[in-house]
Amino acid sequence: MKFKRVLSLLLLFIFFADGFWAQAEQSKPIAQRLVQWNSEVEKSTGKLENSELDDDELKTLRGKLSEIREKARSAAGEIDLALEPLRDELEALGPEPAEDEPKELASIAEKRKLLNRRIAIMEGQRKEVELLLSLLEKTLKQLSAIRIDRFTQKTFARDVSALAPEIWRKGMADLVDEFIETRQQFNKWQSEKKFSKHLKRTFIYLIGVLFACSLVIWPVSVWLSRKFADVAKERAPTYLDLLRAALIVILVRFLPPMVLALSAYLVLSYGFELGGVSRDSAFFVLAAVLMIALVTAVSRALLSPDSRHMRLMPLGDDAARYIHRIIIALAGVFAIDMILGAWLSGSGASLELTVLRKFVIGLLIAGLLLALVVRRSLWLSSTSEHPIIGGKSLFWKGLCGLIMVLALTIPISAIAGYVSFSRLLATQIILTGGLFILVSVIIALCSEVIDELFNKDAVLGSKVRFNLALTEEGSELLRFWIKVAVKLIVYVTAVLLLLVMWGAGGEDLSDWLYRAFFGFKVGGVTVSIAAIFFAIALFSGVLVLTRLLQNFLEYRVLAKTRIDYGVQHSIRASVGYIGFVLAALFAISTLGIDLGKLAIIAGALSVGIGFGLQNVVNNFVSGLILLAERPIKVGDWVVVGDKQGTIKKINVRATEIQTFDRASVFIPNSDLISNPLLNWTHADKTGRVIVPVGVAYGSDTQKIKDILLQVASAHPAIFKVPSPTVIFKGFGDSSLNFELRAFIEDVGNVVAVNSELCFAIDAAFREHGVEIPFPQQDIHWKDLARLESLVMKIISDKRSGHDNS
């Protein structure tokens, strides 16, 4: 029990040791820490002037200086935090009184003096920290320049030509000597007494591990392959199905050899008690096997040489098989180079043998690369005559030409004596190609996942659309911008990885990214990309949460209440406005913009904004008044001037009204506030229907009244209370005029009810023999005798003219 307690205390001490020492370092006074840091920087600068430092020592020195820089930045933050309350206290005391003003209290003067002294000390320390940071930046740049210069010299250093006879003569002799020495060491190790014991133990362990792995891995691989890999047997696979199947193929193809190789490595290392060079060589053999297995799995997943319908790239069968074999051959060449490098470095290979190895490996890589690009027919789509890379022959020709030039440069540079450059170029071409394939797969996968997220026919896509209340246009727009953001992130990450692969120092790149991401100065303004991204993310996140809250209120809370739909819309719109304002305030605060200074700037610009955006501000305020007073709400039937229809949406600037002809009319909110507005459904939807009726003179008016009341009472949409009424309007020119007036539940149905009442009234009048008159007029002719004589004269004139002819 005592031992367990001691062990527990020891583990706790180890766990908290790092934090304890960091806290102890931070608890030291800043002045003391500055002295210590300056001393360490001076020592590092002195070491840097020593040109005999190797690359590992330079890397260690850089790490130490970077650690001091991080501590100095943290100290600068501490000083800024400590200065802020002191300045607030000094500002609260107000300005120091002038000579002609009454003196302040002695306690206040002493407090002011103390605050000024402390602020001066801390501002001095802040300047010392800035000076130290400036010195560190200068030293780190000098260190980076030294490392870049050494890397350049090493890469472009000219050695003996790879075709020189002494290279081949001495290199082949050294290779034979290495084989002989290795065989002698193996025979010596095999002749030891414990070898047979280790061999028997290792064999038993290996058989057991392989049997256990086969019991677990083989059934899992078969199950995954049958369940997910061949999706085309059930239906036509989508691209997302092919990507999912490709990932399963990679897992199924890579998992068994990975587990078996790791198990064999651990068993051999433990069984034979390998150590030193032997253990390192075994590790590199393991790495080579894993690399071949992974490359083979990825190539088979992407190219699918045995199954056309599962192929991600639109290649023909012969082309897919040929490219697959080339890729496996490249992986094999790299694996051989890895094993040879580990074996020869352990025994201290000569320069000639190293040059010979690099030249042969580079020549093989160049030959395989040329075999990929010289046959243009390989890269033609199986359904067209255009290359699959972007579908643009000009781009493809340029890419093929570049690869051919680089591939030819590999052996030519080695022959010219630039062996290190030749080897670096061969490696980087393959790594760049692998990165290009990885980026393409990631982009395709992300694109398909995003499409699935917004697919209205998919379960997840329909939920996303519903929760975010997205229209078809809004869904397409959001999908587009998410794809743009994802592609930007992937491409930027790929470019950074490419820079690291081609020799850019990881530490230098991280420093540059830190300065670019967390703040760089433009004039006197500090621009932080991290703050900008975080502000955009925070703004978008608050807007998404606001939209989710709006949907929750609309469909989960308000829908279960008896609140009018227009009021529900007003509540939803108010929540949206509040969320937008909060999102904007959070984003502005994240950017470090002082809201007080922003208010001053807004006040200074208020006059210009008032003149330039007067109508916009007026409409915005009017929209808020409409939401608060609610003279109109969504769904109301309104009449504004010569326009009428139902309120569809109350926007920030204008209100959208949908006419009964299904047209949209946008009326500025200020017009709705300042001009007369007729709202048929403000309080409720009840309304009155009026049907004018005219009957012939001589009709029984009481009978007409009874018929109209009977027709109104028989209609189901008309209220019984208040009861319908019939008004005798008066005596017209041709008819006795009546009006049937009744109240209905929904004024929106007034046209339909009016029409139905007209049909019913016409049928009732026909049934009871009531005549509906048409307008009648009597024409009275004056001076008829004179008119008759004129007509006779015209007739006689026509006859006389006819006789003369």
TrEMBL record:
Q: Please name one Pfam family that this protein belongs to.
A: MS_channel_2nd
Question: What's the name of the protein?
Answer: Mechanosensitive ion channel domain-containing protein
* Region forming the signal peptide: 1-24
Supply one GO CC term from the record. Answer: plasma membrane
Q: Its membrane topology, per UniProt? A: Multi-pass membrane protein
Mechanosensitive ion channel MscS C-terminal domain residues are: 690-772
Which ranges does the record mark as transmembrane?
Answer: 203-224, 245-270, 282-303, 323-343, 355-374, 394-419, 425-446, 484-505, 525-549, 570-593
Query: Main location per UniProt?
Result: membrane
Q: Does the keyword RNA-binding apply?
A: no
Keywords in alphabetical order: Cell membrane, Membrane, Signal, Transmembrane, Transmembrane helix
Q: Which residues form the Mechanosensitive ion channel MscS domain?
A: 615-682
Family the UniProt entry places it in? Belongs to the MscS (TC 1.A.23) family.
One annotated GO molecular function is:
mechanosensitive monoatomic ion channel activity
Among SUPFAM superfamilies, the record links this protein to: Mechanosensitive channel protein MscS (YggB), C-terminal domain, Mechanosensitive channel protein MscS (YggB), transmembrane region, Sm-like ribonucleoproteins
Compartment(s) where it occurs, according to its Swiss-Prot or TrEMBL record: Cell membrane
